[in-house]
Specification:
five-stranded antiparallel sheet; SH3 type barrels; seven-stranded antiparallel sheet; alpha+beta; single chain
């Protein structure tokens, strides 16, 4: 579930809560059954209670539908997960549930009788709420970048920040934390991670570069990984860009505001950029790789970026 897996938003949590009560649509006496009797009664007559509508196959199928590239279908995974949590908790009730209907009509009950919860009890609702929170937290951590990013935020260990930044690849990342300058002063920073130089991370503060160990050290830090991706351009010779860029030339990172000549490997935060070759040596051939000219003869950079 990768292509259309949704991000966590309040709407997703609401869908999960709705899904957690949907299986009881087959019970005429339930809250949702009383709310929608014109749906609940026919379903109850056709399937009964705690059978097919409480079966895992149905709600697993709903989760799979979220993979379809159809607008808003990705929300179905939250409804399906909420419903599956309901079915799982019902296995803790005294009567159990036929959780594999219509594949099997075997009733599944978890735990011994003394540990089971009553239908409609506060314990049952608390467990449903807990499951929804766990599901939400799981996807929140995923969107954050995984457990290692969570540990990074909680511990502030800069070694973990460096490892995660190197693993981020072409993703645009920022480092937040407390930086100690070589002069001894401390500063709370939020810097853009540009790349590496001599195996050390290089950051852009908005006005200058800072390099790990060379210009100071992070006393504590954590990585903020965004959904944006760098646009990378390999330039043969020299060229002038219409957008701000950071470029690696001669093994050293440099910043180029719009209109300044760049060389080597350039990184940009946008794909909307024009490239003008620098012909001060009299060269008329294009000196950038993979580019094409527009109607005015301006070189346009290919989109080397994947959202």
């Amino acid at each position: 579930m990768t292509a259309y897996l949704v991000t966590t938003t309040p709407l997703c949590v609401i869908m999960c809560v709705i899904g957690s009560i949907l299986p009881d649509i087959d019970n005429k006496g339930s809250y949702i059954g009383r709310l929608l009797p014109f749906i609940s009664h026919p379903i109850n007559r056709r399937f009964g209670h705690r059978k097919t509508i409480h079966g895992r196959p149905l709600w697993l199928f709903v989760c799979l539908l979220s993979l379809l590239p159809i607008s808003h279908f990705n929300l179905l995974i939250w409804i399906g997960l909420g419903a599956l949590s309901h079915c799982f908790i019902d296995q803790m009730n005294k009567p159990g549930v036929q959780t594999w209907m219509p594949i099997s009509n075997k009733t599944v009950v978890l735990f011994k009788r003394a540990w089971r919860v009553y239908n409609g009890s506060g314990q049952e609702y608390a467990l449903v709420f807990l499951f929804c929170v766990v599901i939400w937290a799981t996807y929140e951590i995923r969107d954050m970048g995984g457990m290692s990013i969570l540990v990074n935020r909680m511990s502030g260990a800069h070694k973990i920040t460096v490892v995660e930044a190197l693993k981020a690849g072409n993703s645009v990342c920022y480092v937040k934390g407390q930086w100690r300058h070589n002069a001894g002063s401390l500063e709370d920073v939020n810097w853009l991670v540009i790349g590496t130089q001599k195996k050390k991370l290089v950051y852009w503060s908005g006005s200058r570069f800072y390099r790990d160990s060379q210009d100071g050290i992070f006393l504590s830090s954590y990585l903020v990984k965004t959904k944006k991706r760098w646009t990378t351009l390999n330039i043969k010779g020299l060229a002038t860009l219409s957008a701000p860029a950071w470029f690696l030339s001669g093994g050293k990172w440099q910043h180029a505001p719009p209109g300044r000549t760049v060389a080597g490997t350039a990184r940009l935060l946008t794909t909307a950029v024009e490239i003008q070759p620098d012909n001060f040596l009299g060269r008329k051939n294009d000196n950038t790789s993979g580019t094409h000219r527009d109607a005015d003869g301006m070189l346009l950079m290919p989109v080397d970026r994947h959202e």
